[in-house]
Amino acid sequence: MEFELKGEARSDLGRGGSRRLRRSGRVPAIVYGGGKEPVAVSLGHNDLLPASTPAF
To answer: Could you tell me the fold of the domain covering 7-52?
Structure first.
């Protein structure tokens, strides 16, 4: 299974920034790996739901 998510880099970090994102319908996330520095991003809640639902 493969899917693509579109996100935006974010600079408002921490608990308060995450709460503000969630209230606006976004999901805070961290992308890491590949020997690179972690990047804080936000994803659209409605974009993320189909990717997390199992396909039967």
So the answer is: Ribosomal Protein L25; Chain P (2.40.240)
> What backbone torsions phi and psi does residue 50 show, to the nearest 5 degrees?
-60, -30
pLDDT at residue number 20: 93
Q: Alpha-carbon distance 35 to 10, whole Å? A: 20
- Rounded CA-CA distance 17/27 in Å is 11
Segment-wise mean pLDDT, segments of 10 residues, the chain, 56 residues: 82 92 92 94 84 64
Cα–Cα distance for residue pair 20/34, rounded to 1 Å:
29
Q: What's the angle, vertex CA 26, arms to CA 25 and CA 31, rounded to 5?
A: 165
